[in-house]
Design a protein that fits this description.
The protein is an alpha/beta fold and 268 residues long. It contains 10 helices and 10 strands. The protein has helices spanning 2-20, 32-42, 49-61, 87-94, 98-110, 125-133, 146-158, 171-182, 196-207, 225-236; strands spanning 67-69, 84-86, 115-119, 138-143, 164-168, 187-190, 215-219, 242-245, 249-253, 262-265. Strands 5-4-3-6-7-9-8-10 form an 8-stranded mixed sheet, sandwiched between helices.
Amino acid sequence: MGNWLHRIRFIGKYLQYYLTASNGKGHGTHSPFVFGFIKQVLNDQNIYPSYGKVEALRKKLKKDRRMISVEDLGAGTTTGAGHQRSISSIATHAAKPPKYAQLLFRMARYYQAQRILELGTSLGLTSAYLAQANENGKLLTLEGAPSIAELAALHFNQLQLENVEVITGNFDQTLLPALEKLGRPDMVFVDGNHRKEPTLRYFKTLLGHAGPETILIFDDIHWSREMEEAWEEIRLDPAVQCSLDLFFIGIVFFRKEFREKVHFTIRY
């Protein structure tokens, strides 16, 4: 019953977002930076070669019925899956859909992110997109479950990606060393442990290593009331100059060119 109530609430939230968000065309956007993001990144309709490579892997994984043991260190899933999960189930339900993984690819490509950090590798599909966005850059991706991390590393080898490194362990122990190893990140995708307190803790840690050009992306900001509360605190933080709500992901910028704090909810 809990899952049904969660889904009903989630659908209601999405309908509210869809009816009230701006149309995603950039009309009425007074920020040149945000207008450029909408036109050059959000609405970029090009089909990049990287898309086909990752989606071929995704298609293969969705047919993989092998069962693996998964240690869930986060807030669990809405599907009620236990510790034993099929690879096909993870590829179908846990991996970021192509629409959003490809948006992250375009962001990393457009802003030429050299140092990228990902919290939550899963099977490595989104990681592969991020790694291919700038092959001269470096991607560190953190994964809590050893069995998942091992599979992701195998997938990176299959795709011949040499600029990505998987770090296994609880984010509480791996995040700070990863930041010290990577240096000031250009782009960070937070996709793991969808609870308020850990999400805010990761944000504060990232904030201590972020620069004006750093971009932070948070996954599933409307997944639960906890995540909505976390997102609200993040976007209202004094260091955040601009925030974008795309419903399934939230993006924050620290760029000094914004004269005052701005927030946009954009239909995507």
